[in-house]
Known about the structure:
With 209 residues, the protein is an all-alpha fold.
Amino acid sequence: MARNKEQNEKMREERKQQIRSGALRQFATKGLFATKIKDIADAVGMAQGLVYHYYKSKDEIYVELIKNALNKMNEAVISLKEMSLPPHEKIRLAIEQLLKTIDTSDDFIQTCRLIAHATSSTAIPEEAKKLIQEKRDLPYQEVAKIMAQGQEEGTIIEADPNELAIVFWTSINGLAIYKATRQDSTAIPDARILINMFMERTGEKSCRV
């Protein structure tokens, strides 16, 4: 019985993930209001009734997408903070990995697009608004701390660390949205361009391969 229950839970989560993946592009391109359950069902290749078996409404799917995206980003930035690397190396690594993800993961760039739309919209569920309010600032705060540590070591340029964090994240988000809105295989700029925006000369040298 325990094995059957475990298998059922695994299958249920796989189906929910399939629904979320299909809904992500719909919400990112059309917005919440214009997206219908039928659109999500068609994207996934499911009957509408089966979608409703896993989610009560499109709002519930939307909120779960927002929650998962913010949690993953916050977990990633906490992991970055805890790495045993010098601050400028953390910034270099983060930029390289994020740009690689932008270039290879459609889910990631559509998620960035979804979050950008959600943060500027008032026509989203209250639960989604609350999640954004509670969770959106952590990546900025943690990157600002890393920038400040790098300034103490002389490897990050002198500027307000909070402003550097804003430049960091808006650059990443902007590139993700740029990629998401291009149908061709648009190349992402060389990571060194963005890395060198933040590095003092000594830090810049140390980040070159």
